[in-house]
Design a protein that fits this description.
Blueprint (H helix, E strand, L loop, with lengths): L11 H6 L12 H8 L5 E7 L11 H15 L3 E5 L3 H11 L3 E4 L14 E4 L3 E10 L19 E9 L5 E8 L5 H16 L7 E6 L8 H8 L3 E3 H4 L2 E2 L20 E6 L3 E7 L15 E6 L1
Parallel strand pairs: 1-2, 7-8, 10-12
Antiparallel strand pairs: 1-13, 2-4, 3-4, 5-6, 6-7, 8-11, 9-11, 12-13
Helix pairs in contact: 3-4, 5-6
């Protein structure tokens, strides 16, 4: 197994003492989050491109972190696939989520270097059974490899979880496809499906990620769903929030815009609700992407 980092914050006093600032703009509804928490076995899942930590203003990590903390504490995802997080930034998030959370990930350049495709989980609900990482290249177990024309290293992390509430198990896979090279994205989609296909076939799959292409508008989307084993939770959801473009770049939100951040599931997984969350505080968004959420059951 490739080397990985899994850290639970020891700064419990600091996390307990952090104060959330009242939100002045919110879409996706804390009412929905409260209702979901009361629905028993449903699993609250989120995918979120965090926007890597930067000291440059506006939208520095110091400005964004309190908003991120408020959002995550409010929504309390039990499974959170993140993209672009730097090691120090992920440690901040672990501290802000509190001691009941843990995470699995490794830097795409190896160890703590570069960005992660880290997976956070609520340890009261989920227990990792096994995990691994692979790089989106012709040499997927060569750390830091990139062979499909992309200059940015891309990777995926997967975890086999046991649900402590139900006793069942499932796989979670989290990734971030290339932003510039369609060939790399298409090859990456094929590789991800191959790797998922090699896992225990009877167990459900949840795939989270920033795919850098619009749902329903690109061959990558068709490839990910084409085999019939995965479905788009947004499309299959029994209830949905309003749709917005999930990348906003700190500009005005775009209603009915492109979804480039997806939660895909096995066809047998039930999506009770899907949400694109527009949470902000005093005009500050936690990231240049909107988090996508789903309440899942099977």
């Amino acid at each position: 197994m490739v080397a990985a980092f899994s850290r639970r914050s020891a700064l419990r006093a600091a996390a307990a003492g952090a104060v959330a600032v009242p939100a002045v703009a919110y879409g996706g509804g804390s009412e929905a989050a409260a209702a979901e928490r009361g629905r028993g076995r449903g699993l609250r899942v989120m995918t979120f491109n965090l926007r890597y930590a930067s000291d440059s203003r506006p939208n520095s990590w110091a400005e964004r972190r309190p908003v991120m903390r408020s959002l995550l504490r409010r929504e309390a995802p039990q499974l959170l696939g993140t993209q672009e997080g730097l090691y120090g930034q992920l440690r901040d998030i672990a501290e802000d989520l509190g001691p009941r959370y843990d995470w699995v990930g490794t830097g795409r350049g190896g160890g703590s270097r570069d960005e992660f495709a880290a997976i956070f989980y609520d340890a009261r609900r989920l227990a990792p059974v096994e995990y691994d990482h692979f790089w989106l290249s012709d040499t997927p177990y060569l750390i830091g490899s990139a062979t499909w024309g992309n200059t940015v290293i891309r990777m995926a992390t997967w975890v086999r979880f046991r649900d402590l509430r139900t006793g069942g198990e499932f796989y979670a896979c989290n990734t971030h496809l290339d932003h510039a090279h369609q060939y790399s994205r298409e090859r990456s989609a094929t590789l991800i499906l191959e790797r998922l296909g090699a896992l225990e076939p009877a167990l459900p799959r949840i795939v989270t990620g920033d795919f850098n292409v619009a749902a329903h508008k690109n061959p990558v989307y068709e490839a990910m769903l084409g085999g019939g084993t995965l479905v788009d939770s947004w499309d299959t959801a029994e209830e949905r929030s309003p749709q917005y473009a999930t990348f906003h770049g700190y500009r005005p939100l775009v209603p009915d815009g492109d979804r480039i951040d997806w939660i895909l599931t096995s066809a047998g997984v039930r999506t009770r609700r899907a949400t694109i969350n527009t949470f902000s505080q005093h005009g500050q968004f936690p990231s240049d992407h909107l988090p996508v959420q789903a309440l899942l059951d099977w």
